[in-house]
Amino acid sequence: MQALEGVKVLDLGRALAGPMCGLMLADLGADVIKIEPPGLGDDSREWPPMVNGESTYFMSVNRNKRSIVLDLTTAEGKEVMLRMAETADVLVENYRSDVMDRLGLGYEVLRKVNPRLIYCALTGFGRTGPRRNKPATDVYAQAFAGIMGLTGEVDGGPLRVGVSMADMTTGLFGAYGVLAALQARHLTGRGQLVDTSLMEGQVAFLSYHITAYHATGKVPQSQGAGHPSIVPYGAFRCSDGWVAMATFNDRLWQRAAVGLGLRELAENPRFLTISQRLANREEFLDIVNARFLTKTVDEWVAIMEDLDVPLAPVNKLDKLLADPQISDREMLQTFHHPAAGEVQTFGFPVKFSETPCEFRRPPPMLGQHTGEVLREYGFDASHTGVQA
């Protein structure tokens, strides 16, 4: 058994935020039907790199789903969609907030068809407010919501986080909201609208920065790999690469100082506490940075592990995926795809003792399951609204 076994999900997501939400539910056992428009389908099917015509980007977030093609602008496509919604538990979409309403398939319409339906809408800014119909992408959200304003070197320009964090966290928050709504429905018998956005997820991630700004009135600035409240904390260059170290209390710094051979620095009254080290950050880090340059990454890792100091190599992807912890935690999964062949992607990041996740299906080809799904709902396999 899986946690969401028996739950039916209609996934109208495209690109990343919506598909990520659907993926989380699919991995937990839900029957997720990915509904794609005719032509190219999900936008991300065209995003390189490609393997035998299949996008690795698309394949990374669409496993465990079935794909059907429907033209929701036609009467036939709407008819199929409405019938599917009658028995669905969840619908996920990440269009602008007015698109589904204009199609005649918005929340108010579908809740009348199925009062138990949980309708999860992922947008750029939410379904209310002056920006509700504005377009937004991952980099737009990172910029607008302040993440890029905090990311980058102290004296450099803003940087986008190296993964599509706004999209992916929105998908995660959406799945979190769906699970809460399923529990609420268990108590009340009623579905509801789950409404979250790229902006809101990024603002939530500002967390302690918001609280500190309210308390001090100081606008937080980019710290590079450093931390505004803790030092030493961040990335340090070694003789052959980089490490990251987090001495988030004075006891850890005392141990790190032993490993660095800087006992005298740890005993200096100007650097005894976190507050004192912050007050003298530049002078302090000049000494620490110079010491890290004297050894290799592996040497520092070995020294600090012996002292139980949290210090890690700054890994590139190839080295990370070769680490035995990754395989032990099943964080790499391999599928056989009918066109792309062997496909490798990330595993589910939560483990369950009683309802483990299963990787049942490879990412679907466009419309691969159209006939199969339509027959399940009593339609002829050609009843899609798509012109031949």
Describe the structure.
The protein is of the alpha/beta class and 388 residues long. It has 2 domains: 8-205 and 326-376, 3-Layer(aba) Sandwich (Rossmann fold); 242-313, 2-Layer Sandwich (formyl-coa transferase, domain 3), CATH 3.30.1540.10. Helices cover 40% and strands 15% of the residues. It has 17 helices and 13 strands. The chain has helices at residues 17-27, 56-60, 75-87, 99-102, 107-113, 138-144, 147-150, 165-188, 198-216, 250-260, 263-267, 274-279, 281-292, 297-306, 317-322, 324-328, 370-376; strands spanning 8-11, 31-36, 50-51, 54-55, 65-69, 90-93, 118-123, 193-197, 233-237, 242-246, 311-313, 332-337, 341-346. The strands form 4 sheets. A 6-stranded parallel β-sheet has the order 5-2-1-6-7-8, with helices on both faces. It has a 3-stranded antiparallel β-sheet with strand order 9-10-11, covered by helices on one side. A hairpin with a 4-residue loop joins strand 9 (233-237) and strand 10 (242-246). Helix 1 packs across helix 8 and helix 8 (165-188) packs across helix 9 (198-216). The longest helix is centred in the middle third of the chain and has 24 residues, at 165-188. InterPro entries: CoA-transferase_III_domain, CoA-Trfase_fam_III, CoA-Trfase_III_dom3_sf, CoA-Trfase_III_dom_1_sf.
